[in-house]
Amino acid sequence: MKALVYEGVKSMAIRDVQDPVAEPGTQLIRIEAVGICGSDMHGYLGHDERRPAPLILGHEAAGVIVGGPRDGTRVTVNPMVTCGTCPACQAGRENLCPHRQLISMPPRQGAFAQYVVMPDANLVEVPDHVSLEVAALAEPMSVSWHAALMGLKALHPSMDRRALVLGGGAIGVTSALCLRAMGIEAVTVVEPTGSRRAFVIDQVGLHAVSEASGMYPLVIDAVGYGGTRAVASAQTESGGVIVHVGLGDSAPGYDIRRATLQEITLIGTYCYTYAEFRDCAQAMFDGRLGALDWFEQRPLVEGAQAFADLLSHAVAAPKIVLTPWA
Question: Are residues 52 and 177 in the same domain?
């Protein structure tokens, strides 16, 4: 099959690679849409030791089952494969499985390719009225769904239902949409890049500003750099909650002294449970998360250029979705 292969820092190329083979309990999926994630960009830049070259990146995928009794079924893919038997899995907290694997990280190749093989439990059927390009957003949306749930669960009932989201990329936008779907109407997105900020306002319909001001009961850091951690620390009300979902870097920035004196809760979040992935996908299919038309679509053969454009901030949309071989 053909695949877009990460071959080294800032180097990607279309190559012929071995076809994946479905085993019992798994399905062969013909990929019809796959998003570029911030973690793919980290790998592309050589900043993620979990993603060594050569490697097929991509884990935000949707496609069609090929072969077997479910042949032709349209599905969106939960890319996280877990053991199913550890205490975390048995408790329905699969995202904490110590044996978890994610496609786009060894030993599992990713979805910037014609085909991928996934277990049945990782597939959610997509209704006919939802495009597979939209269905590919289920993975990043589920990351934000989990983060929003965690933050709201920790927020004291006496506090206002207002939130600040740092970052107008895909996770920031989806976090804001999830919060709004969960009843938080007053959500402010901070996005310093003018073109992206305008896109978030005009195309997504969210309130966005260039820099944070004021105090908020709930802050979601969807960027994860030292600078955004400092902003989150400064803008969170006493007794409030910071949800840290971004993975930008490991630089210092979180004000542990203020967090202690003002009893601010910091929550690190990672991925989602299997149930949350299904619930979030259903919310998307039901229209509870909006039109979901805020991505840019490109063919996978232009994938290398898409990465370069994202790196140079030449893309206003929060997400690029690649349509491999349509």
Answer: no
Sign, CA torsion 194/243/141/156? negative
Residues 77 and 146 in one domain: no
- In which domain, by residue range, is 239 found? 142-268
pLDDT in tens, 99-152: 999 999 999 999 999 999 999 999 999 999 999 999 999 999 999 999 999 999
Characterize the bridge pairing of strands 2-8 and 55-56. Answer: antiparallel
What's the structural domain count of the chain? 2
Same domain, yes or no, for 77 and 152?
A: no
Same domain, yes or no, for 164 and 114? no
Tokens of residue 284, six digits: 């998307």
C-alpha separations of 259 from 190, 256, 266 in Å: 21, 5, 8
Q: Give the mean pLDDT of 36-59.
A: 94
DSSP assignment of 255-312 equals -HHHHHHTT-EEEE--S--HHHHHHHHHHHHTTTT-----EEEEEGGGHHHHHHHHHT
